[in-house]
Specification:
Helix content is 30%, strand content 21%. It has 480 residues and is an alpha+beta fold. The longest helix has 24 residues, at 371-394.
């Protein structure tokens, strides 16, 4: 007769998206049983689902995130590419207009993985669920934590429509509340996380929180590229003028993804929001600081309607600063810190956090006192790096933060602006910048003596006067 699972050796991960699946993989090395609790009934393959509306917008994995995912799931990069994902070298396959001008397409420094979010999630999910120690409890919502202010002992759950009951007896209860006992609970439920509310319900104080809201709105649409441009076309990114110049920030980017398609996302801050309908999508794209994206999609075939969102606020919970923290509970991903998606760092930070989760548990040992506190402090490191990158720009938009930018914010922004200007004509500095934006290295590399001197000198090559497309790319896109 099979013995029932030992709750002390059970890990429960709340949320079955990117962060949750990677956290489950990280914990499978230590727990006898890992249960992923997900409100949606997840599809078998790369299909849309109700609980992930942001999947209709552009996503990418910077190389710092790719490295982390590969550590957890060796070979997954190959699986993604076999499924159609694109590996794009940075900055070789990127046509980028920054506020300081066009960047040159320097030799590869790092890379990004480009694919639709449904494909990214489905590929990673299949790899994780292939491990027999990981169970998926779909169609189930989380109601709160079980335990005390000193220790979490499980979660209260309830099956909603369509649950598969694949939890060894927890599901199939007709919507009745049940308790799923666990030795460790990880919240990976994203922007809608109830962790702060759950903790106060256990008697803990309110968590410190900060929000920086640039007012950015997103509009995305999927296109089929012109047939000659369906393979190997570069990323195109037209960035806004620097904030603080008295006008909305308008920008756009085109990402080549699987099956010869382009996902195009147009962005605008307060007063300059992109259109919600198809009729004005092209007009807005042509009205950016350079009309290149509009010229490209004018020759492409629209495949979807426009998807629109305002869910772009930067929000960080400083759980690592709390005076008291319960045993057996940790918060990862967007539930801990959600970033403006325009910077593309959320998925990479989540992957790095999952690696740190595994490292801390491996080093300290399952169930040791203070383990959760150490996990929470460890994952604050990659979160802090991405947070500084995001708010360093967004805090300058009118109304973004309650007290506006600090003196430090202004000094840092001025230096970064100078670095970006230098990077347009200095390949070594461009690489240092991408070291940081790819989440491969910390921002301290931008303060080395050689970088400071280079920033003072400025670009070594003259500014480009036009997008750095090759003649072949121009021809394949039908621009001549």
């Amino acid at each position: 007769m099979t013995e029932p699972p030992n709750p002390a050796r059970t890990a429960v991960v709340l949320g079955g998206s990117h962060t949750g699946m990677l956290a489950a993989r990280a914990l499978a090395e230590f727990a006898d049983r890992v249960v992923v609790v997900e409100r949606d009934v997840l599809p078998e393959g790369p299909e849309p689902r109700r609980g992930l509306p942001q999947a209709r917008h552009a996503h990418m994995l910077w190389s710092g995130g790719v490295r982390a995912v590969e550590e957890l799931l060796p070979g997954v990069t190959g699986a993604l590419r076999d499924a159609g994902a694109r590996r794009a070298p940075v900055t070789t396959d990127m046509v980028v207009m920054a506020s300081q001008g066009w960047f040159r397409r320097w030799a590869e420094s790092h890379h990004v993985i480009l694919a639709g979010r449904d494909l990214l999630d489905a590929t990673i999910r299949a790899e994780v669920l292939a491990d027999g120690r990981v169970e998926l409890l779909g169609g189930t919502e989380v109601l709160g934590l079980e335990g005390t202010a000193g220790a979490v002992t499980g979660v209260r759950i309830r099956q909603v429509g369509g649950g598969d009951g694949g939890d060894g007896g927890v599901g199939g209860d007709g919507g009745r509340e049940r308790v799923l006992a666990a030795g460790l609970v990880v919240d990976a439920t994203g922007r809608g996380s109830g962790a702060s509310r759950w903790l106060t319900a256990l008697g803990l104080p309110e968590v410190e929180r900060r929000e920086v809201d640039s007012g950015l709105a997103y509009a995305s649409r999927l296109f089929l590229a012109p047939e000659p441009a369906r393979d190997g076309f570069p990323v195109v990114n037209v960035q806004p003028d620097p904030p603080g110049r008295g006008r909305p920030g308008r920008s756009g980017f085109l990402l080549p993804v699987e099956d010869g398609r382009w996902i195009v996302t147009l962005c605008g801050t307060r007063g300059g929001e992109p259109p919600t309908g198809a009729d004005d999508f092209l007009r807005f794209a042509r009205g950016l600081r350079h009309p290149l994206i509009g010229e490209l999609i004018e020759r492409a075939e629209p495949l979807t309607d426009v998807s629109f969102t305002r869910t772009t606020v930067n929000r960080r919970h400083f759980y690592e600063r709390m005076a008291a923290w319960p045993e057996n509970f940790a918060v990862l991903g967007d539930a801990l810190a959600a970033f403006n998606p325009v910077y593309g760092h959320g998925m990479s930070v989540a992957a790095q956090s999952a690696v740190l989760l595994r490292e801390v548990v491996r080093r300290q040992g399952w169930g040791t006192p203070g383990l959760s506190r150490r996990v929470q402090r460890a994952v604050a490191r990659p979160v802090g790096a991405a947070w500084d990158l995001a708010i360093g720009q967004d805090v300058f938009y009118p109304g973004a933060a309650e007290n506006g930018p600090t003196l430090r914010d202004r000094l840092v922004a001025a230096y970064v602006d100078r670095l970006m200007h230098t990077a347009t004509g200095n390949g070594r500095i461009a690489r240092r910048v991408t070291d940081v934006t790819s989440l491969e290295r910390g921002a301290e590399v931008l303060l080395s003596p050689s970088v400071l001197v280079a920033a003072a000198v400025g670009p070594l090559r003259p500014a480009l006067s036009a997008p750095p497309l090759t003649a072949d790319e121009v021809k394949r896109a039908g621009l001549r």
